[in-house]
C-alpha cells in the first residue's frame, strides 16, 4: 500500500466484510483457533467470524486501514499456502489465483464501479488484480455509505422459506432448518403492524398495507437498478407483493449516477421491502465481485 495514502489521512478505522466458503474459514481459524489468533495479534485488526452451518460465512475485519491491510495480506498468504498444498498431488500445471469476495454496502457499489465501469477498470489496470483490497478500502473511505445498511447474512442457498408457529425455516430436501434472522424480521413485522398478518404462499407473510402509512426513500446506483426491477419488472413486482408496500423508482436524472426509490406503506411493509431490496443488492454485489 502506498505510504502517501496513509499520510494523506486515510489511516482511520474501517470495517470490511469478506464472504468465504466453510473450508476457507476453517483454514483461517486454524487448529484450536491458533491461526486467527495469530492474525489478530500481528495485524492489530479485530477479526470476527459469523456463526452458522451455512456453506458460506462472513469474516469481518475492523480497525485502522494499516491493520486491515496487514490482516488482508495474512489471509491471502494463508489461502496461498492452502492452494500450494492442494497442488502437491495435483496434475494441474498452473497455480489458480487467490480469490477474496468482499461484501460492500450497495450504496458504495456505484463509487467502486464508476461511471461506465471506469473506476473498477482503473483499479484492475493499476494493480494487475481483478480488484484490489487496498484500493477498495480507499474508495470506501472516500465515499461513505448512504442511509441504513442491512448486513448480508449467508443462508442456505436456494432454499424456500416458510413460517410456522412464528418461526422461519429454510426448506432443504425433507428437512426444515430454523432461520433465526428471518424469524426476528418476521416477529418485528408482527410487532410493528397493528393489523393481523395473514399467511401467504409466497414464503414470507403478506403484511396488511392498510396500517398507518409513511414513506421512506433509498438511493440506488444506476448500475444496480436493473437487478431490483428484474426482467420486465418481475423482481420489483415480487418485492411489492411480498412486502405489501408501494415502490416507485424515479426516472434517471441527467448527471446523476443514482436513482431515487420511494417506498410507501406501513412501517412493517417498508421494513420488509427495504430488507428485500438490500438482499437483492447484496446478491448482485457478490456476483459482481466474483466476476
UniProtKB/TrEMBL annotation:
The keyword Repeat applies. SMART domains: KH (SM00322). PROSITE patterns: KH_TYPE_1. Residues 12-80, 96-183, 212-282 form the K Homology domain. It comes from the Eukaryota. Gene3D superfamilies: K Homology domain, type 1. PANTHER family: KH DOMAIN CONTAINING RNA BINDING PROTEIN (PTHR10288). This is K Homology domain-containing protein. Keywords: Repeat, RNA-binding. It comes from Oryzias javanicus (Javanese ricefish). GO terms for molecular function: RNA binding. InterPro entries: KH_dom, KH_dom_type_1, KH_dom_type_1_sf. The keyword Glycoprotein does not apply. The lineage of its organism: Eukaryota, Metazoa, Chordata, Craniata, Vertebrata.
